[in-house]
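R.M. (postdoc): so does anyone remember the format we settled on? I'll just put the C-alpha cells first.
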C-alpha cells in the first residue's frame, strides 16, 4: 500500500472515531512525541492506535474540507 493510501485509511479511521471531519477540514500533527488533531493534544492511546500510520518524528497533514 502506498503512503497516500495509508494516510487516506488513517483519516477515514480517525473520522469513524469522531476525531475529525474531513468535510469540514482538519489539521493532524505529530510533534514532540505527541499527536494533535485540530490543535488539541490527543491521549497517548490515540497516538498508539495511529502510530503505524505516522512514521517519522514530525508530520503535518492538513485538509481544507470539501
Amino acid at each position: 500500500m502506498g503512503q497516500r493510501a495509508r494516510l487516506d485509511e488513517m483519516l477515514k479511521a480517525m473520522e469513524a472515531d469522531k476525531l475529525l471531519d474531513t468535510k469540514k477540514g482538519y489539521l493532524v500533527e505529530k510533534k514532540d512525541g505527541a499527536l494533535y488533531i485540530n490543535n488539541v493534544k490527543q491521549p497517548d492511546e490515540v497516538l498508539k492506535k495511529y502510530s503505524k500510520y505516522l512514521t517519522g518524528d514530525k508530520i503535518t497533514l492538513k485538509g481544507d474540507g470539501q
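R.M.: ...and that's the designed sequence above, right after the C-alpha cells. Also worth knowing: The chain has a mean pLDDT of 94. The CA atoms of residues 10 and 43 lie 17 Å apart.
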